[in-house]
Write a structure and sequence with these properties.
Layout: H1 2-31, H2 55-69, H3 74-104
Helix pairs in contact: 1-2, 1-3, 2-3
Protein name: Prephenate dehydrogenase
């Protein structure tokens, strides 16, 4: 299980750095009157938090990764791992799409 945890932590570092950049970009967009939305992810995305920024989602995901470290039972670990991986995939995809949309703007 430790190699999986290590890979999750590695991905969390990447997500964290990209989320900081994205949050800064969102702040600039909103200051210029753009980016008028209520939350980054839809309610059915699996996150319990709802925010206009990525950071709260990153914090929630980080807590779940830390919680996984303490799980000893293989079946419980696997059951908890699935939603974490899905959220990570969604987060990475959304951050990449957001980053690309900023590059596409004149």
């Amino acid at each position: 299980m430790q190699p999986i945890i290590d890979k999750l932590k590695e991905n969390m570092q990447l997500i964290y750095r990209r989320a900081l950049d994205a949050d800064n970009a969102l702040a600039r967009l909103q200051q210029s009157g753009k980016g008028k939305f209520k939350h980054v992810f839809a309610k059915d995305a699996g996150f319990t938090v709802s925010s206009k920024r990525f950071s709260p989602y990153v914090e929630e995901l980080g807590r779940e990764v830390v919680e996984l470290e303490s799980v000893q039972d293989q079946a419980d670990f696997e059951a908890r791992l699935v939603p974490v991986v899905k959220k990570m995939e969604l987060m990475l995809l959304t951050l990449s799409n957001f980053r690309q949309s900023l590059k596409d703007k004149p």
